[in-house]
Design a protein that fits this description.
Layout lengths: L2 H6 L2 H15 L4 H12 L12 H5 L15 E7 L4 H14 L4 E4 L8 H9 L3 E4 L12 H19 L15 H10 L3 E2 L3 E2 L2 H4 L2 H11 L5 E5 L3 H16 L3 E2 L2 H7 L8 E2 L5
Parallel strand pairs: 1-2, 1-6, 1-7, 2-3, 4-8, 5-6
The protein binds nickel (II) ion (NI).
Length: 273
């Protein structure tokens, strides 16, 4: 790369390349998706992740996961605020039995004590996500605090399982321009949700199950929390029930890859067909 061109690479691109190198070291196909814009384009437009068709991306994977049929309905179950082994492991077992995957938006301060659960997520093809280090509303933070909260969780997850989170869920769903800009800098989109089970509020498995089964449709992102035993109770019923109804349980990244992709710093509530 020529010196002149090298100078044009801005801070965001350097972070993305660094991320991609780490992912490559971890043998992750996402690294290829991140590196491609830098290698092929030489422009400073936002990196588009997960826009490569799954079939192409799958060739890069060491151990291809279960095949996803793009013609069939798919949804993303997401679990926030963990990991907490006593709950998270029950959800993971249920996913494994049903052949499904989910996305876990983790609070960084919970990660080190629950490393086995984090590694099990990765082993099952689940996606690891960032939910700040101390469950902070990112709208209340200055840039330095934002970098500590987001970077601290990325580092904790990387240390635990060797994978750098590529998606972030803002606590309380709160975002503003400054926090979205920082997410763009760090190469992460903000993942919201289209079905809110409010499991944290009522802690009633039946209400969680009913809320999901009454509303669920192709492309939904479903919000739950893997720190309550009632949520594990609900997940153990919901996961096989959703598969029985014909839904493919995929990660947020997988869902996005079939439905237009994601751009860092943007918010996504759903990926409807
Ligand atoms: Ni939360």
């Amino acid at each position: 790369m020529k010196k002149k061109r090298r100078k044009k690479i801005n801070r965001r691109r350097r972070k993305q390349i660094l991320t991609a190198v780490k992912l490559l070291a971890a043998g992750t196909a996402a690294a290829v998706l991140l590196l491609k814009p830098a290698v092929l384009c030489n422009v400073e437009e936002p990196a588009v992740i997960s826009r490569v068709p799954r079939s192409e991306a799958a060739e890069e994977e060491e151990t291809p996961g279960p095949q996803i049929d793009p013609e069939q309905p798919m949804i993303a179950l997401t679990f926030d605020d963990g990991p907490k082994a006593s709950v998270t492991n029950r959800i993971l077992k249920s996913l494994e039995e049903a052949g499904g995957r989910a996305t876990f938006f983790m609070v960084g301060s919970n990660v080190a004590a629950n490393e086995d659960s984090v590694n099990q997520m990765v082993a099952q093809g689940c996606q690891v996500g960032n939910h700040t280090f101390g469950h902070k509303y990112i709208t209340n933070l200055n840039i330095q605090e934002l970098e500590t909260q987001l970077g601290g969780t990325n580092q904790a997850v990387l240390d635990a399982c060797g994978i750098l989170p590529m998606v972030m869920r803002p606590p309380g769903g709160k975002t503003d321009e400054a926090s979205l800009n920082e997410l763009a800098e760090m190469g992460m989109p903000a993942i919201m949700w289209s079905i809110d089970t409010k499991d944290w509020q009522h802690r009633d498995a039946q209400i969680t199950i009913q809320t999901v089964l009454e509303q669920v449709k192709d492309g939904d992102i479903i919000l739950m929390h893997d720190i309550y035993s009632a949520t594990a109770d609900a997940a153990e019923v919901l996961i096989p029930a959703l598969v029985e109804r014909g839904f493919q349980l995929v990660t947020v990244g997988e869902l996005a890859s079939f439905r237009g992709g994601m751009v860092p710093g943007q918010k996504y509530y759903r990926f409807y067909p």
